[in-house]
Design goal:
The complex is a heterodimer of chains A (391) and B (178). Chain A has 391 residues and is α+β, with helices and mostly antiparallel strands. Helices cover 31% and strands 29% of the residues of chain A. In chain A, strand 15 and strand 16 form a beta hairpin. In chain A, helix 1 packs across helix 3. The relative contact order of chain A is 0.08. About 12% of the residues of chain A have low confidence. Chain B has 178 residues and is mainly alpha-helical. Chain B folds into 2 domains: 97 residues, no CATH class; 72 residues, Winged helix-like DNA-binding domain superfamily/Winged helix DNA-binding domain (Arc Repressor Mutant, subunit A, Orthogonal Bundle). In chain B, helix 1 runs antiparallel to helix 2 and helix 5 crosses helix 8. About 12% of the residues of chain B have low confidence. Classes of the chains: A alpha+beta (391), B mainly alpha (178).
Chain lengths: 391, 178
Amino acid sequence: MSTQDEKDIEYILRVIAHPEMELTAEFRMWMQDKEHRKLYKAAKAAHDAIALKEKSLPDTQEEWQQFLSRTQSTRKSYHIKSSKHTSQSRNIHAYIWSAAASLALLIGFSFWAYHQYNTSDSIALMEANLNPQEIVLSSNSGQSIVIDKQTNTESVAILGASISDEQAITYKNDKKIAEAVPTMQTLQTPRGKDFKIELSDGTIVWLNAESKLQYPSRFTGKERLVHLEGEAYFKVAKDAKHPFIVKTANLETRVLGTGFNLRSYNNAAPHVTLVEGKVAVKSEYYHIMLRPGEDARLNADGSIQVQKVNTQSYTAWTEGYFYFDNASLDEIMKEIGRWYNLSVQVNKPNVLNYHFNFWAKRDDSIEHVIKLINELDKVNITIEGNKLIVN
Amino acid sequence: MLEAEKTIRVEDLFKSHFHQLYVHAYGWVRDEENAKDIVHDAFCYLWENYERYEKEDNHLLALLYTLVRSRSIDYLRHSQSRENYIQEQIEFDDSNRSDYDDYDDILARIMSAIRRFPPQTRRIFTECILHHKSYKEVGELLNISPLTVKTVMARAFKALREQREFFIPAILLLLAGL
């Protein structure tokens, strides 16, 4: 028996006794050796074998009944508490249920979409929104203001923000904010307008059209948490001690300091696209790390698909462009309908599967953009009032 | 796929392997309730995604083990410092399932090997592996020297590993005979 063997056995026993050692780089290095992996497996199996003999085990029949009632009951969505004081087991339960609920929603949606595109009748892809289209800033104290050219500095200051230019507000370096009790603020963009916000930590958020960002006027506590509906590009200020977290209906993205685009409109699969730095994306069942240049897409079945992408096509909007890199007409028309606030009617839904490469400036007229698409010679789009008709 | 078929298949796996998966999770989380939750969670995943995996019937157990493992490791990560958590993320990756392809087999063989251990060896093994005692503590408990404990453990592990290598050629020979 070599001393090396004895050392390995002592090491593996320590790992079994202190499983958190498995999270260390040292352990991962150790496991690179094939013999070590065999030893690890044998030790784990030995542990399981002894535990099966010595431990009192749950009643399988009872557990199965529980499992059945769980899978067959109506699913409810619970709010997941981030508080450290809630017990782990509660968290896990809440997680399963909320996951199941959002999964059910997603599946429901994709099912509906599937049916729609297979009919030969014309369909309405987008509906124009007839309400006034304005950028609105509101706080949980109940105040809300419309931000446009006429908005004066004082009215925004009441909410703790200051206007840095016509298309941006900032919460940074404001003495009033630093002293005041933080309030939750919501910035909402309409169709056809985007907006820039600088948060109190210096993080810059470009909020795309028809989106909503909820954030505190000042970050306190261990985490910097914001909520997003729609699409935004985040340039997160580096602060390793305070992870920046963006929550959407079904994804959680954790960041230490990075640039990434997050798209979560309610009529399409959510995407997280990483431009630089490092983020972790968490859905109901998956945890993944993204590397720069990768895009994570949440599929209807709850899985996350990661692929290398041209990040420019996901972030070009922050510079005022539509940029579609091999995108389906479905995506393109939704995006255009959203930006120009137009209804979209599609007479032959199968054309929605066509893929195009396509560039346009967002401040061009709709007539010009449609002309560019028609020049691709695949579809013929006409404009009638506030409706686009795809033939 | 018939819902009934799925229920039968999952019930079968559940009833035959709940305990194995439970002790496997327990090895990491050291808490009965959480270990149970993790196994339930793994079966929930299988239940929701059954269509995707049903064709690989032989690997369903490996999938369950992999799910239990990734959830247990996640649990550990969460209970560790929250700040280090992000750097340590590992992708839940279907391809890792092959790690567990032969686990059920190994477990069965190791169980029978342990059954054949002399009582003293079994006691030492149990104290070290299940109750996480050090060689010194086990020595004191059984009134033997820590060095003896060390030797016994080394021999026990050797026996477990030999058991394995002996078994595989035997199976191959049998197959060749067919």
